[in-house]
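To assess whether ligand presence alters the predicted conformation, the chain was also submitted together with pyridoxal-5'-phosphate. Input:
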Amino acid sequence: MEYLVMLPGPTNVPDRVMRAMHAPMINHRSDDFVGLYERCVESTKRVFCTSGDAVCLSASGTGAVEAGVVNVVQKGDKVIIPVNGEFSGRLAQMIEWAGGDVVKVETPPGRSATLDEIREAFDNNPDTRAFYCVWNETSTGTMIKYLDRIKDLTSRNDAMYIVDGVSIVGGEELQMDKWGVDVAMTGSQKALAAPPGISPICVSARAKRHMVANPPRSMYFNLARYFKYYEEARHTPFTPALPLLYAYREALEIILEEGLEARIERHRACSRALYAGLGAIGLSPFAEVDSRSTVVIALNYLDGLEDARFRGTLASRFRVLVAGGFGDLKGSVFRVGCMGEVGRYHVMRTISAISSTLAMMGHATDTQAGLEAAESELRGLG
Ligand SMILES: Cc1ncc(COP(=O)(O)O)c(C=O)c1O
């Protein structure tokens, strides 16, 4: 029996998307490819709400994040970045490796930096060249909720604004152009509900100019090369993962058919339902209330609950997959993804399976209270 994949990626992939991969090989230097790739690019831009450029890299999310660093950061550039977990830590590391002079705004793992803390960093560093952030810190279940207000800070001296949206784009609102975001990326296996392997990166006109004028010493992640091939022939410079692009195109069709607004509302309702339902069976969220993510719900383990046994039982007895904690949080939290194909069925089955697993492991729970609390948040979904 198939798993219910409630991980913070990969997520459940609709059959329609899986079937799209079952297509004959084509020449990636032909009109067949042009039709496929152009659609991927255009739909990506609609999901990111940008009129800029999009590149659909054949890579995991880290590839797109790395591209967003090496194509922007120049040696000695001062870069502000909030850090409160594994992925923001990795991003800060990549920026340092690219020669950036990193100013970290560090907060504890369950809390995102406040806008005031970010403003203070800008006040103290008027020579800042770029602001980077991990929108959704997947490792801790926190998210930044003021992406629409960063432009006031970056526009002080035209600093670049870069958003690692790897676990959240498609599940929450992103208005790249309106919010003044210069570069943003995600991975196909998260809220886009496609298989892993395609990672789109979107780039504003001014960021593109910067990238073309300052190409990085990287062959695969040289975005100027992708722009050139696209402009000249609607091709990619290197051999793309064709079956994955078919799946990716189909996943984006589904997103656009549903409509971005409806999709985001559905994600938010499911996330409220998961917090409410899991709370009602006695679990507490790891993240502070103002920082809580709508797409990754990190929960504290109850005393005496052993991570591998809990998740192993949930997977083998109930076919529900959730993720463990990262780094220092390993063994003390687990994480439930609320991304892509989430609806009433996914939420209810997850809550009841977790509740049953807890009961099997000696922690009495009230499953009915959990399901009722969740249902009260899901009424609007139909
Ligand atoms: C915020 C964030 N950035 C980057 C990544 C890296 O993505 P990948 O594992 O696809 O390389 C992840 C993966 O979970 C993530 O959540």
